[in-house]
Specification:
By secondary structure, this protein is mainly α. The protein has three helices and four strands.
Length: 128
């Protein structure tokens, strides 16, 4: 079992300073992805400022949404690899992997919905 941090509802056990994935977890976040998420959020803020975009609420939303989408895409890739690697005979793990994939897809959908209008509005600023 891989060490992971859990966000959202569900049960978890503490061990070695990290939360371990157990049945019933919602969105799982690996520690390395937390750092990546923060780095990407900061990079988005810096890039938008370089482009002269200073509307703080939109910059904040976009940095959070786009960095979470980036990390979420990475999580989906890993979950899909897990899904493809699980034996169909290991029904518990198979179900947990599908459940984790479903929750991550919901998480991504929320960030897409939240950011789509802002990204579109920003793109229109460069349509000259």
């Amino acid at each position: 079992m891989h060490a992971r941090l859990r966000i959202g509802g569900g049960r978890s056990r503490r061990g070695s300073g990290t939360l371990k994935r157990t049945k019933g977890d919602s969105v799982v976040v690996e520690p390395s992805l937390v750092d990546l998420d923060l780095q990407k959020a900061h990079a988005v803020v810096e890039r938008l400022k370089e482009l002269g975009y200073r509307d703080e609420p939109i910059v904040g939303r976009l940095s959070a949404d786009l960095s979470d989408l980036y990390a979420g895409a990475t999580r989906v890739q890993r979950l899909l690899d897990d899904f493809l690697g699980v034996s169909t005979l290991d029904r518990d793990r198979f179900g947990e992997t599908l459940s984790d994939l479903c929750e991550e897809m919901r998480h991504i959908a929320q960030h897409i919905e939240s950011s789509l209008d802002d990204v579109e509005g920003l793109a229109e600023r460069f349509d000259d």
